[in-house]
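User: Structure tokens for both sequences below?

Assistant:
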Amino acid sequence: MITSSAVRLWIGAAGYCTHPEFLTLQGGSLRAVSFPAGFACIQHPEHGYILFDTGYSARFFEETATLPQSLYRYITPVIYQEEDSVISQLEQQGIMADQIKYVILSHFHGDHIAGAKDFPQATFIYLSESYQAVKDLSSIRAVKAGFLAGLLPDDLTERSRVLHRSDSQPLTSLLYSHLGHDVSRDNDLITQEFPWQTGYDILGDGSLIAIELSGHAEGMIGLLVSTTNDDYLLCADTVWSSIAFTENRPPHFLAGMIMSDRQQYRLNLQKLRQLHLSSRSIRIVPSHCKQALQQWGGRWL
């Protein structure tokens, strides 16, 4: 176990969008394939239920009913039914919306924040640069950045606990040390397995460690968590599918049009591949990977 305490983890998807495969994967076909709008529910032994992203909701269609916002859903057609919503899926697990204490937002694209208003009691956690990059954009630029401001609660800032880059800590002080390993050995382990050097202690107890994965979107974060049996990296949109890092197949050049930083994207893709090759025990979960959802989704881990 790489984090300080085990949590329970439930991986799901709240709707799907479709893209031509070649845009998301080098050598992919021209046919449109589906990409789940992934989210995760975490049950922490002390803090209760925590969400990582929220997928789609009916509000996405309300917010994209007219131009220019409607360009969003024309470019990325969405398949969604009300039973796909996060709150519907949580209720099937006996979890009510007001039981969600925290919602961690990896970034502010519409397919990650569309359910945010469904959790009026939750505190939102995200990296400051992620919100700052989109909050003041004009409507056209916001659509290009995949951001729909109307999806966010009006009191977002009042209910936010914002991470700042100055809050980051060396991973050597966040991972493994709780196991009582020799510090030099811990450093070696982290250097070998983790190409990222710093992270964010979300709850202050070492159980949820965020890592900045900018490139797809400015200030995007992923999340390292451990269950009783396995370690996971919820890597958000660092890649659209696991094939990208297992076979080293980056997206098409045109996909860079929606990226905040092409160079940073390529760098974090290579770091994800490095993690895959150096630490086969860590399960890497991209938000939009159908294979990862089929393998680990729909049950408590």
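Moving on to the next sequence.
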Amino acid sequence: MAAPGLQPPSPSAPALRGAALPPPASGLQKIWQTRGPLAWVLWPVSRVYRTLVGMRRGLYRIGMLKAEHPGRPVIVVGNVIAGGAGKTPVVIAVVQHLQGLGLRPGVVSRGYGRSTTDCREVTPHSPAHEVGDEPALIARNCRVPVFVAPRRITAARALRAAYPDTDVIVCDDGLQHLALARDLEVCIFNEQGVGNGFLLPAGPLREPWPRAVDFVLHAGSLPPGSDPAHAYGLQRRLAPYALRADGTRVPLSDLQGQPLHAVAAVARPEVFFAMLQAEALQLAHTEALPDHYNFDSWNRSSDKRHPLICTEKDAVKLWQHHPDALAVPLQLHIDPAFFATLDARLLALGVHRH
């Protein structure tokens, strides 16, 4: 079954409704897809990076650097590629699934892009610029305890102190944050997989792949080296509606035939634009901004009569300045076998339904 709140595609519908084939990559991401001349120029630097990554992991392995466990089962949802894998929607899906079992999950995150540096709780009403756009989105969608801190273990301790009945802690991102000991790791891949297989900066990998993880969720073909026994398919599509700031819905079909201004401050904005166009929406203006852009100084450059449409992640910041913006949520369908296996692994860790 799909996670609660996420509707699987009907048998008669296309597998990826609203999700056109990914457009060609641009800039550095284009370099990362092939082992072309520029990738080879950067390859020596990536070897230095690989050595540093290996040395750091080795220090944890021999105990010179210590990983700490918060005392509740920890699920880390992250990736080994730089940007755009879709970690946060998977976190939301996992949390909603746990809630559906009657469990009491909590979420910890670094809170990337926030203006603060302390450890703090994220509520559904927290300003995104103070807590990070992704933690704000999780808190609003899931209504579970969410804490952010530069060190995830600090956030996990604060979460447990405030909510001692928490059953499971889900970490949004953090496969490379080895200071937080974990029980289960979920690694996400988008349609581009491992790209050219090189490490940064010659390729998209943050660390060598393959490496041991408990689960692989992949939107495209199975990444080379992945264990098929622990790999599960992932499909992403747009919801058939857009959200207003007050929570009311506008069917996407109602927006067809009128020029729209689409804005996206995500890792791969061109994918969002392509998905909108696959819904037969007319994009008179598209504006790609840096990932986690805060929108404080942003001004519309298009005709104000064109409705403004954005991602749900951007809306948690954009609505503060442009409450008329429409946000299109992303819906996931994850292989039901993933949730069944996750349940079994949690049961083995002593996590029981209430």
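User: Anything stand out in the second?

Assistant: The radius of gyration is 20 Å.
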